[in-house]
Amino acid sequence: MTAAYLSHFGLTLAPFSKEIADADLWLPSSKAALVEELCEALRQHQSVVLTGEPGVGKTCVLRALRHRLPHSGFRLTYCHNATLGRRDFYRQLCLALGLKPSATAAAVFYAVATHVEQLGQERTHPVFLLDESHLLHQDVLDHLHILLNYHWDSQALLSLVLVGLPELEGRLARRHNRSLYSRLHTRLHLSPLSPEDTAEYLRVRLAHAGCERELFASDAVAMLHEAANGALRDMDRLATAALREAARKKKKLVERDTLARVLDSGSHED
């Protein structure tokens, strides 16, 4: 990592890196409310679908959930490889759960289902977080509702959290997937940041890096918000590039013309 721009602005660490502890994640009030709604759904042992455009902070929400949900009583398992067929999907789940995957699809499903029941006996509620769920194979979607069925569908021993792009909602709403969709009682959508959220986000992340003064002019903040479309991932990338460009020009403030050069030159690549 280039340290020149950090020393130029008196920063102790890269302010817009994704390498930040769960406890230090910032969420605007609207997203904090969404996390609380997600937590409450899991406390009620419900299953959830969470959608949002790329880069708006879906994984940040999951990390905030991991931080806020009590460790006692819940066991979260995160899976992000959604491009597998049904057998390999369950083998992936086995590995994530610390189980030895078997050879057949029926055996790996049985291993996962048995593990879920054992956790229930231990009064621990398992939560499977399935990221990139818009990419799930249809044969996996066809089977997930069966994974939620325990004791004649009389006990909610498992919660699924399906996370993906907005088209996931459309896939789930198809008649073919109604058995699964009807079991996803909580349906949440994550919107991009508002202009006010963007300004607060910049301040909070810069303060976390050791800077309490404004480093972005107000018109630069507005331009950054528009260029990133309120998406956190693009905002991090562009803000970092703008700080580097300002440091190269020996400026102590990122102004609109600095950000414009970043956008025009394409120098904001990762």
UniProtKB/TrEMBL annotation:
What InterPro entries does the record point to?
AAA_22, ExeA_AAA_ATPase_DNA-bind, P-loop_NTPase
**One Pfam family this sequence matches:** AAA_22
Q: Which SUPFAM superfamilies match?
A: P-loop containing nucleoside triphosphate hydrolases
PANTHER family named in the record: GENERAL SECRETION PATHWAY PROTEIN A-RELATED, PHOSPHORIBULOKINASE _ URIDINE KINASE FAMILY
A molecular function (GO) term: ATP hydrolysis activity
| Domain ORC1/DEAH AAA+ ATPase, chain residue ranges per copy | 44-172
What protein is this chain from? General secretion pathway protein GspA
Q: Name the domain of life.
A: Bacteria
